[in-house]
Design goal:
The structure holds 2 protein chains of 2 kinds.
Chain A lengths: L2 E4 L3 E5 L4 E3 L1 E4 L4 E8 L5 E7 L5 E3 L5 E5 L4 E6 L8 E9 L7 E2 L3 E6 L1
Parallel strand pairs in A: 2-12
Antiparallel strand pairs in A: 1-4, 3-9, 5-6, 5-10, 7-8, 8-9, 10-11, 10-12
Chain B lengths: L3 E4 L2 E4 L5 E7 L5 E8 L3 E10 L2 E4 L6 E3 L9 E3 L8 E8 L7 E2 L3 E5 L1
Parallel strand pairs in B: 2-11
Antiparallel strand pairs in B: 1-3, 3-8, 4-5, 4-9, 5-6, 7-8, 9-10, 9-11
The chains are: A mainly beta, B mainly beta.
Chain lengths: 114, 112
């Protein structure tokens, strides 16, 4: 069965610090990978996604993620966080065969202090 | 561009009552999904639908019923609400199952 593990439950950073949120998945085949963000009181928004091609994916708001197939990882990075990046971040994975469901990690809460 | 909407946004109900959460999308997406979000569990899939009149169970379907008579609507019904169904419910849609899912604003449900 597919599963997604997000290593950090809560990350606290100061503005301008660099960010890396870990995501590892368990699945035996080809996958599609996603990072979603949920700002306080808002719905989930797509940050970035990986389907195929260049394993370094750039998303909105300066975020990027790198797919490392050998490590089953899809870590999210941002060189310099802002107070407005305070949110909950969800990694999600789906097998690329028809009918497979999107599986979410439990989420990482990022708190950025100004 | 209305996108995907959910109603009500907030609901308080009592144990044993029937509750229906509505989801409406304007994109004519084929696929629609219902998730619940709980602290420590992330998002878990309740039900999904591939098209009108086609639905299937997700990870946590017990206690829920769905229907999809029209492509744009995907209501979720709690036939007899329980306290364990207190949660935030998100509806999502995608054009095809392999494409990006777009989420609605959520419904916060409290079962007393």
């Amino acid at each position: 069965a597919q599963s997604v593990s997000q290593h950090n439950h809560h990350v606290i950073l100061s503005e301008a610090a660099s960010l890396e949120l870990g995501c590892n998945y368990s699945y035996g085949g080809t996958v599609n990978l996603f990072w979603y963000v949920q700002y306080p009181g808002q719905h989930l928004q797509l940050l970035l996604k990986y389907f195929s091609g260049d394993p370094l994916v750039k998303g909105i708001k300066g975020f990027e993620a790198e797919f490392i197939k050998s490590k089953f990882s899809f870590n999210l990075r941002k060189p310099s966080v802002q107070w407005s990046d305070t949110a909950e971040y969800f990694c999600a994975v789906r097998g690329n065969q028809a009918g497979t469901a999107l599986i979410f990690g439990k989420g990482t809460t990022l708190s950025v202090s100004s | 561009d209305a996108g995907i909407t959910q109603s009500p946004r907030y609901k308080i109900t009592e144990t044993g009552r029937q509750v229906t959460l509505m989801c409406h999308q304007t994109w004519s997406h084929s696929y629609m999904f219902w998730y619940r979000q709980d602290l420590g569990h992330g998002l878990r899939l309740i039900y999904y639908s591939a098209a009108a009149d086609i639905t299937d169970k997700g990870e946590v379907p017990d206690g829920y019923v769905v229907s999809r008579s029209k492509t744009e609507n995907f209501p979720l019904t709690l036939e007899s609400a329980t306290r364990s169904q207190t949660s935030v419910y998100f509806c999502a849609s995608s054009r095809e199952v392999q494409e990006t899912q777009y989420f609605g604003p959520g419904t916060r449900l409290l079962v007393l």
